[in-house]
Write a structure and sequence with these properties.
The structure holds two protein chains of two kinds. By secondary structure, chain A is of the alpha/beta class. Chain A has helices at 41-45, 100-106, 117-127, 141-149, 156-160, 184-192, 206-211, 232-240, 250-258, 298-302, 346-356; strands spanning 3-8, 13-18, 28-35, 53-57, 61-62, 81-83, 86-87, 111-113, 130-136, 166-168, 174-179, 196-201, 216-219, 245-248, 263-279, 284-296, 306-312, 318-323, 328-331. Chain A folds into two domains: 3-149, 3-Layer(bba) Sandwich (Glucose Oxidase, domain 1); 156-356, Class I glutamine amidotransferase (GATase) domain (Rossmann fold). Chain A has eleven helices and 19 strands. In chain B, helix 1 packs across helix 11 and helix 14 (431-440) crosses helix 16. Among the domains of chain B are: 145-208, ATP-grasp fold, A domain (Dna Ligase, domain 1, 2-Layer Sandwich); 214-348, D-amino Acid Aminotransferase, Chain A, domain 1 (2-Layer Sandwich), CATH 3.30.470.20; 519-652, Rossmann fold (3-Layer(aba) Sandwich), CATH 3.40.50; 683-746, 2-Layer Sandwich (Dna Ligase, domain 1), CATH 3.30.1490; 751-878, ATP-grasp fold, B domain (D-amino Acid Aminotransferase, Chain A, domain 1); 931-1051, 3-Layer(aba) Sandwich (Rossmann fold). In chain B, strands 28, 29, 30, 31, 32, 33, 34 and 35 form an eight-stranded mixed beta sheet that branches. Chain B has a seven-stranded antiparallel beta sheet with strand order 14-13-10-11-12-15-16, sandwiched between helices. In chain B, strands 17-18-21-20-19-22-23 form a seven-stranded mixed beta sheet, sandwiched between helices. In chain B, strand 10 and strand 11 form a beta hairpin. In chain B, 37% of the residues lie in helices and 20% in strands. Chains A and B meet through helix 3, strand 15 and strand 16 of A and helix 9 and helix 16 of B.
Chain lengths: 357, 1059
């Protein structure tokens, strides 16, 4: 059993078993966040929104059902590490192809197990997200301190977005998805509804996007701070006037910024599959799958072109927005689920209906 | 949506007596619901027949009725109370069925009572097989294909349509007798034939077999605004085929990927929406381990045992929320009572693993068929939490209190692989241990998976535990090895045995080396939100979360799982003790592991520790909390048994001292005490050989009651009437030698009396004396108890009081004591004393108005009885007469003897109270579910010894309009007294034997006293089983018979022609 350590920005060190990529001479720096989902580790770790983050899984047994071919949300996991209480050596499930440990090794993701993840979660909750580093036990302390002073950069979206347009043919409406780091199930949700989808790089120009003759636009999820990509805001402003638009997570934040609202960094974000969202029009509450560290500030919406459609039951934060005059709306969470509850899949239908009408 | 303002007064129906399948969980849900309604300003009227519950405390609701749960009595209450609403979804199947009846008969509409939480349409759609299937088809949810057949040909036609394997379920047979799984045509023909023969209506259900599928449950809540959430999902480690109540369960599911989890979650939401349930609901699934195919097995449109488990497993109080939903609130308006910061409309996230194991009554029912199947057999369950599955599993094993502290059953040691394979295939309650032993003996998990279809995840965890055993043996007592073993939940007892070191030394060594558990909080949200609900479990990790407090603390030990002999009564006493401790300004800490009960509701105590009740686990809590002391007298024998071990570790036991407990429980020391006080006791002796037994019994005089001092495999007490029977018992039932002595007592056939008393060490207060209807020899827990005594003279009552005061004082009792007497030839004999709260505490508390456990707790904590307003002596009885009657679960347990004897068999109790004895008795019988015939045919077969007594009763039965069928001997007697009787043949003597007679449906009551002759007896056993399986009343005690007769006589007219 090989040991590695997790060192927090605040100086605390945790020793544990190395269950992922070998990191004999290297370190892995990321923003330490926690996720409370009890299932779906494969989807979580392959979600590009976790780019440059180290995920603490609050559920203690991870890897129980192994890894399968179907449940990847992207081909190249972008996270910087995983922290677990226990990481299964073998998976048990009919779709299991290989173990989680094997996956972590294949994708060179460092991971540590045997950690009191509840303690860590409470630290993040109380102090807010912080940087942390996964490193060999022997890695010198002053080097780690140095590493922890480094910035994580502002290029996450650029790194995870597609470099060139990709076309997924379908018989129905053509949707162009601006890719800020999309999860596969957003694409699948559209394809399942017969859409013809073109995924374009995050910084595609209006001309390029229009050249695909879209009938609707989807702004995807993605990692990092929405304010890191101000160049997309004019594109959004232009396109929303011409095409029905649906935005998810990062897309939602960019949609808000493009329309005069503000975003801010949250203390520790929302990551999990049990967040209650209330639709103000329907008066109903839905469970949602969430993964975001930034949020649209409530006060800023009042002076914007937008109105709030959905709120979080617990902290009353904004979960959904709609343009006051244009057929454009957005949600902070993940209606495509994967992992998490499928309660709000109907939003895709609403989007496609808005195109028809 | 705000509360429905039209609902000012709501009637809540409880679930009645504890029976297998419907137990303490409904006291928990009912109590929670009532409190929840009161919080919202609703006036609550409660009705339940079970006195041993917290919900029937008069403080629980605005008005509490302890009355039989049937339409007749409910209507009286509805007329009197005029409630606006009726809430039946928290009282199990009993309450739900009553609601359906009230509605169908038009009473609710007529009386303007609104049915809350569900509607009759919903209930029927969920419970009627056909309607349910139709609804599932309509909404596109898969159910296993099935067909009801009357012939083998029909079953073959069905098989041709859907293929094999198929399961054959004969209609109306207990435990699926005659049924089975058919994998081909030949098997199907054979099984259908036997199934049709076994079914009393020649009918079988043929169903697609889903045996071996994963069994998964979802607990769902929906409100009137159609908001739905999943509170918890749970996975049975026993695949489909074992009733979920009998399965070992883990929460949350462990082997489902998110795709599978969400597939079933979405299905569950769809189902609760289609049923329009407003409240809690449970959906059970079978999930193919090799594809995404799943089937809906069953839906319970109400809170259930599983929802109680889910509430404790997650911290999310389902019943409490369901009650608020029933009166109109929606989940987004209800605050999450655990975090107090978030709302109830969310899905709990767990950051630990929960293991539940059922507790079975097979220690009491040695002859019972232990095979687990579709009929639930467990009486209770335990739950344990851990941060690893191994830890949760091993903790839950030691919660069971079956003398096991590890995945190791001594009887399976040194068994061959073939024998172990047989044990595994037997699919009984000990399968987990057989699997462990087989893995130890080298069987592969692949092979076990083939035999059991148990998932590799679980088998892998057991393998890890076994590997750790080897590591421990190799490494010995090193910090690393012990730490690793403790993280896996290994107990000190097991490790110390393995490494051959004293348990206490290991504990001290661990403490010195810092290998002690921390306590983590159950908070519903995996730490995402701050929570201050002090609900804890132990685990071996770095951070401890126990909230600091400056208050003085007192620990109360609970009573663990519900089992025969230690039921909900002890949870009742535990809850009262906690209340009293809190009201005196101390912080009350409870340690318990039963997820069904009120005491493990985190709102009841200041701190709840969900832990096994072993010396080690309790000491860990004490180490952390440093309380003033520990109260052991309310948690039944479970807690009392820990007193000695805890004291040896320096723990302060509050109340009666450990030495005095021993003086009461140790046979020899108690005998000495009784002798010194000059109190009469049935003579008894201890023997170590058969010869000695014969000799000493002759000296004592037959009949004698014999029992092993050390119980082997549950063989226990018997009453023997002569030397022949004694020899038979000694040879058959016990192993007698100097190491295993046998106890013999003179058996006095007399009136049995039970007294509970409270003492502060100085003053002894007796709230009441009860007499038993059945003569000594029937276990006190199975007897009908009457308060106040109806047949005992003033002189004897005085003597009983006096003796009680004397013994209690001499034992220096601080707290509660229970004493059992027999009155034999006008003389009072002491049978036994229990230096603790007894089964009768709730009953007596309710009928006397003295809250005994609370008064006793205050006395334990040093507040004198005088100061509390009590006195040295016996409280004068009230005008009301109350009857406590036992309730049995025989119909659920095949091959179990139903005749009453010295071993307790009942699972629950009811109370009937009225101004007149016969009316109280009548209520008790009705509440116990006895269908009292007012005329009809009695089938009588009476043992020679009882014939004279029996004939007097038969004459009275004849007078009020009964006639008789009887076996030859009994018939002759009846004829001789001029009572008309039809003779019926013994079993197998002819076509028209007793069994045929019972099955004919002509008999309305059976009176059968036990014969000692073996052949006759096995016939009697068969007859009683047939009766019980057909729901026919079968009385085995003439005392019970007379009591029943009295109630019949009171309600009957004499039928005499003019003379």
């Amino acid at each position: 059993m090989k040991q590695i350590k997790l060192v927090l920005e605040t100086g605390e060190e945790y020793l544990g078993e190395s269950v992922g990529a070998d990191i004999d001479n290297i370190f892995s720096l990321g923003e330490l966040v926690f996720n409370t989902s009890m299932t779906g580790y494969q989807e979580i770790l392959s979600d590009p929104s976790y780019c440059d983050q180290i995920i603490v899984m609050t559920y203690p047994l991870i890897g129980n059902y192994g890894v399968n071919k179907d449940d990847f949300e992207s081909l190249a996991p972008a996270l910087k590490g995983m922290v677990m209480r226990e990481c299964a050596e073998e998976g048990s499930n009919w779709r299991n192809e290989y173990s989680l440990r094997e996956l972590l090794k294949r994708f060179k993701i460092p991971a540590i197990a045997g950690i009191d993840t509840r303690e860590l979660t409470k630290k993040i909750r109380d102090r807010g997200v912080m940087k942390a580093v996964l490193a060999p036990v022997s890695y010198p302390k002053h080097n780690i301190e140095l590493v922890l002073t480094r910035s994580l950069g502002t290029d996450q979206i650029q790194r995870v977005s597609t470099k060139s347009p990709i076309h997924f043919p379908g018989e129905g409406k053509r949707i162009v998805m601006m890719d800020f780091g999309y999860k596969k199930n957003i694409l699948s949700s559209l394809l399942r509804r017969n859409c013809d989808v073109v995924v374009v790089p995050w910084n595609s120009s209006v001309e390029v996007i229009e050249s695909f003759r879209p009938q609707g636009l989807l702004l995807s999820n993605g990692p990092g701070n929405p304010k890191d990509v101000p160049e997309v805001l004019p594109t959004i402003r232009t396109l929303q006037k011409k095409y029905p638009m649906f935005s998810i997570c990062m897309g939602h934040q960019l949609f808000a910024l493009a329309n005069g609202a503000e975003t801010e960094k949250m203390k520790f974000g929302n990551r999990g599959g049990n967040h209650p969202v209330k639709d103000l029009k329907l008066g109903k509450v839905f469970m949602s799958s969430q993964n975001h560290g930034y949020a649209v500030t409530e006060a800023s919406v009042k002076t914007s072109e937008l109105e709030v459609t959905q709120i979080n039951i617990n902290d009353k934060s904004i979960e959904g927005l709609r343009h006051k005059t244009l057929p454009a709306f957005s949600v902070q969470y993940h209606p495509e689920a994967s992992p998490g509850p499928e309660d709000t899949a109907w939003l895709f239908d609403d989007f496609l209906n808005s195109i028809r009408n | 949506m705000p509360i429905n303002k039209n609902l000012k007064k709501v009637l809540v129906i409880g679930s009645g007596p504890i029976v297998i399948g419907q137990a303490a969980e409904f006291d928990y849900s009912g109590t929670q619901a009532v409190k929840s309604l009161i919080e919202e300003g609703v006036e609550v009227v409660l009705v339940n027949s079970n006195p041993a519950t917290i919900m029937t405390d008069k403080e629980t609701a605005h008005k509490v009725y302890i009355e039989p749960l049937n339409v007749e009595f409910l209507l009286k209450i509805i007329h009197k109370e005029k409630p606006d609403g009726l809430l039946p979804t928290l009282g199990g199947q009993t309450a739900l069925n009553l609601a359906v009846k009230l509605e169908e008969e038009g009473h609710l509409k007529r009386l303007g009572v609104q049915l809350l939480g569900c509607n009759v349409d919903t209930i029927q759609k969920a419970e009627d097989r056909k309607l349910f299937k139709d609804l599932m088809k309509e909404i596109g949810e898969p159910v296993p294909d099935s067909k009801i057949v009357m012939t083998t040909q029909e079953s073959l036609e069905f098989a041709n349509k859907i293929g094999y394997p198929l399961i054959v379920r004969p209609a109306f047979t207990l435990g699926g007798t005659g049924g089975g799984i058919a994998s081909n045509e030949i098997e199907l023909i054979a099984i259908t034939n036997s199934g049709l023969a076994a079914s009393p209506i020649q009918q079988c259900l043929i169903e697609r077999s889903i045996a071996g599928f994963k069994e998964v449950e979802y607990e769902v809540i929906r409100d009137s605004n159609d908001n739905c959430i999943i509170v918890c999902n749970m996975e049975n480690i026993d695949p489909v085929g074992v009733h979920t109540g009998d399965s070992i369960v883990v929460a949350p599911s462990q082997t489902l990927s998110d795709k599978e989890y969400q597939l079933l979650r979405s299905s569950a939401l769809k189902i609760i929406r289609s049923l329009k349930i407003e409240g809690g609901c449970n959906v059970q699934y079978a999930m193919d381990p090799h594809s995404f195919q799943y089937y809906v097995i069953e839906v319970n449109p109400r809170v259930s045992r599983s929802s109680a488990l889910a509430s404790k497993a997650t911290g999310y109080p389902i019943a409490k929320i369901a009650a608020k939903i029933a009166i109109g609130l929606t989940m987004d308006e209800i605050i999450n009572p655990v975090t107090k910061k978030t709302y109830a409309c969310f899905e709990p996230a767990l950051d630990y693993v929960v293991s539940k194991i059922p507790r079975f009554p097979f220690d009491k029912f040695v002859t019972a068929n232990r095979r687990l199947g579709t009929q639930m057999k467990a009486t209770g369950e335990v739950m344990a939490l851990g941060r690893t599955y191994e830890e949760a599993l091993l903790k839950s094993v030691r919660c069971l209190e079956v003398g096991l502290f590890h995945l190791e059953l001594p009887a399976y040691k040194n068994k061959s692989l073939t024998e172990l394979t047989d044990k595994i295939l037997k699919q009984d309650d000990e399968r987990l241990f057989a699997i462990s032993e087989a893995l130890r003996a080298g069987m592969t998990s692949k092979e076990i998976n083939r035999l059991t279809k148990m998932d590799f995840f679980f088998l892998g965890k057991i393998e890890k535990i076994i590997a750790m055993e080897k590591t421990l043996l190799q490494e010995g007592k090193t910090v690393e090895a012990i730490k690793a073993a403790k993280k896996m939940g290994f107990s000190d007892i097991y490790i110390s045995k393995l490494l051959n070191i004293p348990e206490k030394d290991l504990y001290d060594w661990r403490k010195k080396n810092g290998i002690m558990p921390v306590f983590k909080m159950v908070d519903t949200c995996a730490g995402e939100f701050e929570s201050s609900t002090p609900y804890y479990y132990s685990t071996y990790e770095s951070q401890d979360e126990v909230l600091e407090s400056t208050k003085q603390k007192v620990v109360v030990l609970g009573s663990g799982p519900i089992r025969i002999g230690q039921g909900i009564e002890f949870d009742y006493a535990t809850v009262h003790a906690i209340d009293a401790i809190r009201s005196m300004g101390y912080e009350a800490i409870v340690i318990n592991n039963n997820p069904e009960t009120v005491s493990t509701d985190f709102n009841i105590s200041d701190r709840l520790y969900f832990e096994p009740l072993t010396v080690e686990d309790v000491c860990h809590v004490l180490e952390r909390e440093k309380p003033l002391g520990v109260v052991v007298q309310f948690g039944g024998q479970t807690a009392i048994n820990l007193a000695q071990g805890l004291q040896e570790r320096g723990v302060n036991i509050l109340g009666t001292s450990v030495d005095d407990i021993d003086r009461a429980e140790d046979r020899k020391r108690f005998e000495e005490l009784v002798r010194s006080l000059d109190i009469a006791q049935p003579l008894g002796c201890t023997v170590t050989s058969i010869n000695e037994a014969v000799e000493k019994s002759a000296h004592l005089g037959f009949p004698v009651i014999v029992r092993p001092s050390y119980v082997i495999g549950g063989r226990a007490m018997e009453i023997v009437y002569n030397e022949h029977e004694l020899l038979d018992y000694m040879k058959r039932a016990v192993q007698v030698n100097p190491e295993h002595p046998v106890l013999i007592d003179r058996y006095m056939i007399g009136r049995e009396i039970e007294v509970d008393a409270i003492s502060d060490g100085e003053t002894v207060f007796i709230p009441g004396i009860m007499e038993h209807i059945e003569k000594a020899g029937v276990h006190s827990g199975d007897s009908i108890a009457v308060y106040p005594p109806q047949t005992v003279s003033k002189k004897l009552l005085d003597k009983l009081s006096e003796t009680t005061l004397l013994i209690t004082k001499a034992l220096k009792i601080k707290g509660l004591i229970n004493l059992q007497y027999v009155i034999y030839q006008d003389e009072v004999y002491i049978l036994e004393v229990n230096p603790r709260a007894s089964r009768t505490v709730p009953f007596l508390s309710k009928v006397t108005g003295v809250q005994m456990a609370k008064v006793a707790t205050r006395a334990v904590m040093g507040e004198s009885l005088i100061k509390q307003g009590y006195f040295h002596g016996t409280l004068a009885p009230k005008d009301d007469i109350a009857v406590k009657a036992p309730v049995f679960s025989f119909a659920k347990l095949s091959d179990v003897e139903i005749a009453l004897g010295p071993e307790m068999k009942s699972t629950g109790e009811v109370m009937g109270k009225d101004k007149v004895f016969e009316k109280a008795l009548h209520k008790a019988f009705v509440a116990a579910g006895v269908i009292i015939p007012d005329s009809g045919t009695i089938l009588a077969t009476i043992n020679d010894v009882d014939k004279e007594d029996a004939i007097k009763l038969f004459q009275r039965f004849y007078h009020v309009g009964f006639d008789f069928v009887a076996t030859a001997g009994t018939a002759k007697l009846l004829k001789a007294r001029g009572i008309p009787v039809r003779v019926v043949d013994r079993i197998g003597e002819s076509e028209n034997d007793i069994i045929k007679e019972i099955k004919s449906g002509r008999v309305s009551l059976i009176i059968n006293t036990i014969s000692k002759s073996k052949n006759v007896e096995s016939d009697g056993f068969k007859m009683r089983r047939v009766a019980v399986e057909r729901g026919l009343l079968c009385l085995t005690s003439l005392d019970t018979t007379e009591a029943l007769l009295k109630t019949i006589e009171r309600n009957s007219y004499t039928m005499e022609p003019l003379s």
